[in-house]
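Repro:
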Amino acid sequence: MVKRLIVGVSGASGSVYAIAALRALQRIPDIETHLVLSEQARQTIELETDMTAAEVEALAGVVHRDGDLAASISSGSFETGGMLVIPCSIKTASSIAYGFNANLLARAADVCLKEKRRVVLVVRETPLHLGHLRTLAQLAELGAVILPPVPGMYARPKTVDDIIAHTVGKALDQFGIDAKLFTRWSGAEAP
């Protein structure tokens, strides 16, 4: 059985996380990725990477336009394993938290929440003020997983790619997908 996973990419800095997630998901058999890029994500991708938005879209199985509120992923009757929003801006988090479904990215996440499907938000903002924290608390109360890109130094990362892989691996773990992207903690060795 093919597992469908929605990947939403907002305009927050950190589009490299989305690219790494899509590449990792390509290597997993029986995962059908449904990608939606916000308009701001298209710009951020081209500002932060050597890729175009079209090249990022080519990493997904199915691509949806952010303005297409009639897309399959806008309905709860379209079964998915949930949604990963990576990176997730505070604007997008706010839209999801308060059901402001002005675009497909927010609508798809809202649908996943109402259907009790996993929603993982890789929130990319710092520092956070009280309004941000209240929005994230609202999302947690609705059932979303808040997973900021915080590196695990126990794996002794040597490159930026190692740090990115750790976050992507932790995010995919939330869907029961072990992409084997990072070294798992197995306990401290006795001296």
